[in-house]
Every structure is written in C-alpha cells, then in structure tokens.
Design goal:
This protein has 418 residues and is of the alpha/beta class. The protein has helices spanning 39-53, 77-87, 100-107, 128-134, 138-141, 145-150, 170-173, 185-199, 214-227, 237-246, 253-261, 267-278, 315-327, 347-358, 368-376, 391-397, 403-414; strands at 17-21, 28-29, 34-35, 57-61, 91-94, 114-117, 156-159, 181-183, 205-209, 232-235, 282-283, 288-292, 295-299, 312-313, 330-334, 362-366, 385-387. It has 2 domains: 8-187 and 400-414, Phosphoglycerate kinase, N-terminal domain (Rossmann fold), CATH 3.40.50.1260; 203-360, 3-Layer(aba) Sandwich (Rossmann fold), CATH 3.40.50. Helix content is 40%, strand content 16%. The strands form 4 sheets. The chain has a 6-stranded parallel beta sheet with strand order 5-6-4-1-7-8, sandwiched between helices. Strands 11-10-9-15-16-17 form a 6-stranded parallel beta sheet, with helices on both faces. A 3-stranded antiparallel beta sheet has the order 13-12-14. Bound molecules: 3-phosphoglyceric acid.
C-alpha cells in the first residue's frame, strides 16, 4: 500500500479476472487507422505485461478522444495492435464495451489472455459532457450500465490511468465501490515522482506554460504562484496572448477574435488580476511570431499590425526563455509555445524543447502536446521526467485529491486485503 492506495503487489493475480482501466488516448490518423503517437501506450505496456505474465485474465478499458473535442474520438482497434507488439502477445480487440459481445469474450478468457474493449466513451455514461452535467457520486457511478455489467465478471479492478485521474467517470471511479482495487505501476510511478518533486522543488524553479488548453494553463499558473513553488512563469501560446492582451499590449485583432471565438474572454480579467499580483514572476512574450504571405514575421507588441494573428513567440522571447531554462534547477513544462506542427510557427517550441534537452536542472514535461513536441525535437531521452498526464498533472499540483485517487483510497478501506 502507498499513499493509502493498494498496489498490484497486494494481490494474487493467477487465474483472476482483472478489469484494468488505462489511458491510451492518442492523436489518431483516421485515413490509415493508425495512431500518430504511441507514448501513453508504451508507458502502460509494462503494467499490462506484468498482469498477464502473472497469469491474470486482463480486460483493458480505455477512452480515445473526447465527446467535447471530436477530432480524436475513435475506436480502440489501432491501440490493440500497438499493445500486442509491445507486450509480445495477442491483445484481442473487442468491438463492444459492456454489451453481450464484451461479456461473452470476458467469460471465455484463459489465464494470461488480454482483451481490449472498445472506446468506453462510446457509452454516454462515460462522456465528459455527462460527467459535467450529471455529476454522479461514486456510489451512483457504480450503478451505471458499464460498471454493473462488467464488475460481476471481475475479481480485481486496477487503475493505471493517471492521465485521466482528474476525471470523475464510471470506469475510473465506479468499480472501486464494488471491487477490491489497486493502482497500476504507471499510476504509482507518476504519483510518486510528481508528489516528491512538488514537495520541495529545487530552486530556482521555472514553469513554462503554453498550449491552447487555457483552463489548464491558468489553474497551473495560479497554483504554483500562490504556493510559492514557481520563481518564474514563462508564458507562451494562447496563455501568453491572453496575458499580453489583458495587460494592454497589442496582439492583433485576429488574435483577439480567436480568444472570443473560443469563449475564453473570461480569462482576460483573470489574467489581468494574476499579472497585477505576481508581475515580478510572470514573464510575458517580448515579441510574437506570425505568418505573412507564406513567410514568418516577428513583431514586438508595440509594432504588431492591426490584423495580426500571433502563432508563436518571437526570437527575443526565445532567447530570454532559453536563458531562464539554463539557469533553473527545476523546470516544469506544460504546453507548446505556438503552433509547432507548422514550420512557420515552430521556432519557439523547437528552441524551448532543445533548451530543455540541454538543461542541467531537473526537467518535467506533461501533457499530450508537450510530449509530442519532446518527441518531435528528439529530446525525450534527455528530459528528467515525462508525465503522461496534462490536465491530471495540473490538478494534482493544486493539492486537491483527484477523483480517482479518492475512489482508490475508498476501495483500500472498503475491501481490506487479508
Ligand atoms: C488527456 O488526454 O488529458 C486524458 O486522456 C484525459 O482526456 P480528457 O481531457 O478528454 O478527459
């Protein structure tokens, strides 16, 4: 037991049916039915192999994409292929989540076999809109279709989905109400590394916040400034643009329109208030990158033309940020500095990640886009720690008990191991 949660070590696995929730959520290429990145699947594979090698019948449940952002909402067929090759054993993909096909497949499993069920978010009860609208308690989640149909087939529930630990959804928090439960190896590792790091980050500690997940960026900024963990917060991406705009700097009308189109205007007064309180710690972009007639252009906020769209930080900012990263003893990164998928707007992200690769301090990177950027700029192996979670990592840093942690702690008390 660690952190009040059971680990796999507490349980006899041979011959047991283990319902295992993983986070295998990755960008998808629908045309080729493949995944554009396999980082989370690679991170989960050792837990799966361990369970299967110990003789458990392993039923993997996972979500792919989100009902809110449809881009990557897809089946889990490609994930089964990747998992099979990683663990060197057939992972049978079942095109069902909790209906008769899934239940028959589970009932017929032999020791050591592995199946992967289809995207759990194909069930409405697992969708984020459902979670946010109905706010089911964990006891109510245990009565949903997905839990009540699958739990009777399982002996043990294992959650290895640290990256989804901030979600309050039945396959994450419902099984712990009715089955003995444990965290998987990846969950245990992420929890351990992040909590140790946050207890006493070596100073100076610098946070680099960018990307387009604005709520995440602002939660993180507020948390680390309030707690005193951050000596500097270097801002880029949409968070940088909102801060610049909120503090009266020019970012161009198209950049402002984008903030309103995305309904992010509520963050403008929040950004102004945060900057007012912590102006000596928050670093705003000194210049911005954009594209004009197929070429990259850069402007300081004073020079920004009216119809400008900011899609990256500029060279001056890059120099400042790289110097801060080089001086820091601890660096946390969440979110890229710009639209790094496009060569005209990748300079900021590329330079920051290359600086992370060379940094002498301890570097931690979290979130899907940041992990993809680390891979693109070939620095993954040089980083101190790559966390599979983005939103989960950020909410973990706030010190709040994550819903899945709460559910796993409940199970440890409700089903004591003899
Ligand atoms: C993530 O990508 O952060 C996790 O898989 C959780 O996904 P979600 O934000 O769609 O719940």
């Amino acid at each position: 037991m660690r952190f009040g949660i059971n680990t796999i070590d507490e349980f006899e696995l041979k011959g047991k049916t283990v319902l295992c929730r993983a986070d295998l959520n990755q960008p998808v290429d629908r045309e080729t039915d493949t995944l554009k990145s396999t980082q989370r699947i690679e991170a989960f594979a050792p837990t799966l192999k361990e369970l299967s090698d110990a003789g458990a019948k392993v039923v993997v449940m996972a979500h792919q994409g989100s009902d809110i952002e449809y881009q990557n909402f897809y089946c889990t067929r490609p994930h089964a292929k990747v998992l099979s090759s990683l663990i060197g054993k057939e992972v049978t993909w079942i095109e069902d989540v909790c209906g008769p096909t899934a239940r028959e497949a589970i009932a017929g499993m032999k020791d050591g076999e592995v199946i992967l069920l289809d995207n759990v978010r194909f069930c409405s009860e697992e969708q984020t809109l459902f979670e946010l609208k109905l706010k089911l308690t964990h006891e109510e989640q245990a009565k949903t279709q997905v839990v009540s149909k699958l739990a009777p087939l399982g002996d043990l529930y294992v959650c290895d989905a640290f990256a989804a630990a901030h979600r309050d959804q039945p396959t994450l928090c419902g099984f712990e109400q009715v089955l003995p439960s444990a965290m998987g190896r990846l969950f245990e590792k992420e929890y351990c590394v992040i909590s140790e790091l946050m207890e006493q980050p070596e100073k100076p500690c610098v946070f680099v916040l960018g990307g387009s997940k604005i709520s995440d960026a602002f939660i993180m900024m507020e948390t680390v400034l309030k707690s005193g963990s951050a000596d500097k917060v270097l801002t880029g991406g949409l968070a940088g643009n909102i801060l610049l705009h909120a503090t009266g700097k020019k970012i161009g009308q198209k950049s402002i329109d984008f903030i309103y189109q995305k309904n992010y205007e509520e963050y403008i007064p929040k950004a102004a208030a945060l900057y007012e309180k912590y102006r000596e710690k928050i670093v705003l972009p000194a210049d911005l990158g954009g594209a004009e007639n197929g070429s990259r252009v850069e402007y300081t906020p004073e020079q920004v033309p009216d119809d400008f769209t900011a899609i990256d930080i500029g060279r001056k900012t890059i120099r400042i940020y790289c110097e801060e990263i080089a001086k820091a003893k601890t660096v946390f990164v969440n979110g890229p500095m710009g639209v790094f998928e496009d060569s005209l707007s990748e300079d900021g992200t590329k330079s920051v990640f290359e600086a992370l690769g060379k940094a002498e301090g301890y570097t931690v990177v979290g979130g899907g886009d940041s992990v993809t950027a680390a891979k693109k700029y070939k620095v993954t192996d040089q980083l101190g720690y790559v966390c599979t979670g983005g939103g989960a990592l950020i909410r973990f840093l706030t010190g709040e008990e994550l819903p899945v942690v709460k559910a796993l702690r409940h199970a440890a008390k409700a089903f004591p191991v003899s």
